[in-house]
Structure formats: structure tokens, C-alpha cells
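Colleagues,

For the teaching module next term, I've prepared a clean inverse folding example: a structure given as C-alpha cells, and then the sequence designed for it. I'd like students to try predicting residues themselves before seeing the answer, so please don't circulate the second half yet.
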């Protein structure tokens, strides 16, 4: 059975594959007419609303195609930094492209409060049924960029429960055990194999 992930981020597909492949699912990018869907994001700071809007748009896009019987997965995530009002939050992807990791470090320069958390909200759909899950990984922002693995803000995020390394210094497997997306997708995978589902 295929899970079609509505994302243009291949790193997310790799992370999802690591969780769903052992259950017998193949995770592939959602592509319609040779293109990945482009979403109109609602103007909200609510990560759940954004994911659910992406799901509804995905279902509209595939409604007249032969892939409509597959599982469809959407996910939205962000880095929420306590001391600056949860910024960049749902705008993390945009902010990372504009100012990068160095920009976040500069914003927090000389600030002792570096508490932050990653959040990921995932929605999985098939045949009229929705499974939803929120994953949270708490941690803090590093004072320097460390590591070249992962993507986005991974080289400046030090997760609680780790050994002091940033996500950028961890292997995909190590990150997956601790990460917000890993938690969110594991919750979905457990619901998939639950006898009540």
C-alpha cells in the first residue's frame, strides 16, 4: 500500500519512509500531472489549521485521478522560540530561506533564554477516514551552527533528551528517535496498526 506525501521536501519523505516502511507501506511524493501540489496556506498561526487546509486541498486535487484510493499524508511543522513570541513558528520555512540559521542566532545574541520547541502536525487520510497527530520536541537554540545533517533549523536546535548535539550533528536515525516529526508519524503508524482502526 502506498502513502502519498504531499510535500516538496524530499527530506520529509525519507523520514516518513523510515517509520512506515517497516509496516509494509511505500512512501512516495504526491505528484499529479507531473507536478507536486502548490498549496494556498490560510493566514493563521495555527499549525493544525494549516495541515488540515493542505489535506482538503490535496483531496480536491486528486478527486478525479486514479490515485484517490491511496493514503494521503500531509504535515506542517515549525520551530517555536519562546523568548520571541513563538517566532518563526508556522513561517519557519520562509524565515529559514530568508535569514537562515545565522539570522536566528543573531536575533538571540546575548540572550540567555534560548528555550524552543519543534512542532509537527500530521494528517493521514484514506477512504473518508482521517488520522491526526501532533508531535513536539522541546529543546533550545545553540549559540553556533553545528553539523550539516538534516535540514532547516536542525544545525541550531539542541533537543532535550539528547546528548547535547544539535539535530544537524545527528544521523537520520538518531534524529528520528527524538524529533517532532518522528513522534507525530509514529503516533499515526500506531493508529494504522491498531485493531480499532
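(Answer key — instructors only)
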Amino acid at each position: 500500500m502506498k502513502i502519498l506525501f504531499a510535500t516538496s521536501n524530499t527530506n520529509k519523505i525519507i523520514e516518513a519512509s523510515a517509520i512506515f516502511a517497516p509496516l509494509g507501506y511505500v512512501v512516495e511524493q504526491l505528484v499529479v500531472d507531473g507536478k507536486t501540489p502548490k498549496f494556498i496556506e490560510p493566514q493563521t498561526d495555527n499549525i493544525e489549521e494549516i495541515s488540515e487546509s493542505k489535506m482538503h486541498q490535496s483531496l480536491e486535487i486528486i478527486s478525479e485521478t486514479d490515485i484517490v484510493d491511496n493514503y494521503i499524508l500531509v504535515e506542517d511543522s515549525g520551530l517555536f522560540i519562546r523568548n520571541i513570541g513563538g517566532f518563526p513558528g508556522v513561517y519557519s520555512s520562509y524565515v529559514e530561506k530568508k535569514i537562515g540559521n545565522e539570522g536566528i542566532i543573531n536575533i538571540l545574541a546575548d540572550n540567555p533564554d534560548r528555550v524552543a520547541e519543534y512542532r509537527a502536525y500530521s494528517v493521514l487520510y484514506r477512504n473518508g477516514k482521517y488520522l491526526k497527530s501532533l508531535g513536539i520536541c522541546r529543546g533550545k537554540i545553540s549559540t553556533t551552527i553545528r553539523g550539516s545533517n538534516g535540514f532547516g533549523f536542525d544545525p541550531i536546535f539542541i533537543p532535550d533528551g539528547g546528548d547535547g548535539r544539535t539535530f544537524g550533528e545527528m544521523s537520520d536515525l538518531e534524529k528520528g528517535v527524538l524529533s517532532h516529526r518522528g513522534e507525530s508519524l509514529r503516533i499515526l503508524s500506531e493508529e494504522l496498526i491498531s485493531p480499532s482502526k
